[in-house]
TrEMBL record:
GO terms for molecular function: UDP-N-acetylglucosamine 1-carboxyvinyltransferase activity. UDP-N-acetyl-alpha-D-glucosamine binds at R92, R121, P122, I123, D124, Q125, D304, V326. This is UDP-N-acetylglucosamine 1-carboxyvinyltransferase. The lineage of its organism: Bacteria, Bacillati, Bacillota, Bacilli, Bacillales. The active site is at C116 (proton donor). It comes from Ferviditalea candida.
């Protein structure tokens, strides 16, 4: 195990190149196995969750070849095996195997997913979708068993707007007989990315990115080449880090439209933002206004940026209120920020943050974005060295984080954790 050591107080300066989106990649990789010939995915992020998915595919007999940030996935020899345990439990997005294995083999047994368990994360809407398509679903000793003789298109209304359920139903329905309509679908850019890949494979999906998605099923899908969209959450994290350290950075290789809510909030606080075609420059200021932030489904402020944003709000004047309307209780970073001297009170689904200088401390990341929040907090501290354990969570979703921060002038390094 390793920990991150951060001697903060240095403004970030320079350019950071953003990799492909983790939350797209971990849906596109399983989607690729729906094709009967090889699929090539470009612009993959080098993050642990992608490696874990590649290992799961190998267990299924799929051939996975890496070349730089490109992965070639050949499922010519895929076999259908139950996957109750093992790597599927390490990864939230292993639930996509339910949709693809059901579509490909008419049956799947997949252990309930693990991943960042900052609160219970039900998958009832995924199951509702599979059942509507004609599958029988049962829970067998903690694994979901799904079976269907023939998947048939259906009209499905999602009771909650869910990224995972929208994608999983799209995956299964792309090989069902007839038309499936998803109402109240999620609109995140990652959903459009998955629909784009599936359509390049020969699927017929319309409306991705709106609340109504129509999928006309097809009997077979073919290989293709697809480049993954940039990671808007990594980009937003660096934007917040630049503002928090009063730095001046260019976040490059992004789609600025995906970050509109983030950009608007930083401007409201007083940061200077310049938007270009594929990059955003953030110039931090010494004084920030307090703001209220509501984390919502896309195109609202992303819940995945809520924890990093909490750290920035400690640097604002006065009291800010941050409310997460996607998850009730995504606040595992708050007790750790309190150790660093933050003044934060939790009230229901809100964090009430009073601006105050932070101090160096030993803290622990308990999930991916909580980890990012602690890194940003530590970067603002100008005396002492902060130690962040639980780096394995951060490695799940940030490509080259330490190197990127070092290139922009941060004093950050990894150290082995001593066994006690
Ligand atoms: N929900 C249900 N039932 C369901 C599915 C979701 O009640 O069947 C609820 C959840 O509990 C939550 C809300 O609906 O309150 C939204 O959940 P969603 O299904 O959209 O989340 P997800 O698909 O499991 C993905 C990302 C998360 C990101 C959310 C929201 C992946 C693998 N994960 O999760 O990313 O926070 O969408 O945008 O794509 C992260 O990257 O750190 C991360 C947690």
């Amino acid at each position: 195990m390793e920990k991150l050591m951060i001697a903060g107080g240095r403004p970030l300066r320079g350019t950071v190149q953003i990799s492909g989106a983790k939350n797209s990649a971990i849906a596109l990789i399983p989607a690729a196995i729906l094709a009967d010939s090889p699929v090539t995915l470009d612009n993959l992020p080098k993050v642990k969750d992608v490696d874990t998915y590649a290992e799961i595919l190998c267990e299924l007999g799929v051939s996975v070849e890496w070349n730089g940030d490109t992965m070639r996935i050949d499922s010519g020899r895929i076999r259908s095996i139950p996957m109750p345990n093992g790597q599927v439990k390490q990864l939230r997005a292993s639930y996509y195997l339910m949709g693809v294995m059901l579509a490909k083999f008419g049956e799947a047994t997949i252990g309930l997913p693990g991943g960042c368990n900052f609160e219970p994360r039900p998958i009832d809407q995924h199951i509702k979708g599979f059942e509507a398509l004609g599958a029988e679903v049962s829970n067998q000793y903690g694994s979901i068993h799904i079976k269907a003789k023939q998947l048939r298109g259906a009209k499905i209304y999602l009771d909650v707007v869910s990224v995972g359920a929208t994608i999983n139903i799209m995956l299964a329905a792309s090989r069902a007989k007839g038309l499936t309509t998803i109402e109240n679908a999620a609109k995140e850019p990652e959903i459009i990315d998955v629909a784009t890949l599936l359509n390049s494979m020969g699927a017929r999906i319309k409306g991705a990115g709106t609340e109504t998605i129509r999928i006309e099923g097809t009997d077979s899908l073919q290989g293709c080449r697809h480049s993954i969209i940039p990671d808007r959450i990594q980009a937003g994290t660096y934007m917040i880090a630049a503002a928090a350290t009063r730095g001046d950075i260019l976040v490059d290789n992004i789609i600025p439209k995906h970050l509109e809510a983030m950009t608007a909030k930083l401007q409201e606080m007083g940061a200077h933002i310049y938007e270009m075609d594929e990059s955003i420059r953030v110039i931090g200021q010494s004084d920030y206004a307090n703001v209220d932030v509501k984390a919502l489904v896309y195109p609202g402020f992303a819940t995945d940026l809520q924890s990093p944003m909490t750290s920035l709000l400690t640097q604002a004047n006065g009291v800010s209120i941050l409310t997460d309307y996607v998850y009730n209780n995504r606040f595992k970073h708050v007790p750790e920020l309190l150790r660093m001297g933050a003044k934060i009170k939790l009230e229901g689904r809100s964090a009430v943050v009073e601006g105050s200088a932070l101090n160096a401390a030993k803290v622990k990341a308990t999930d991916l974005r909580a980890g990012a929040s602690l890194v940003i907090a530590a970067l603002t501290v100008d005396k002492g060295v902060s130690e962040i354990s639980g780096v394995e969570y951060i490695d799940r979703g940030y490509d080259n984080l330490v190197e990127n921060l070092q290139t922009m002038g941060a004093e950050v390094w990894r150290e082995a954790e001593k066994k006690v």
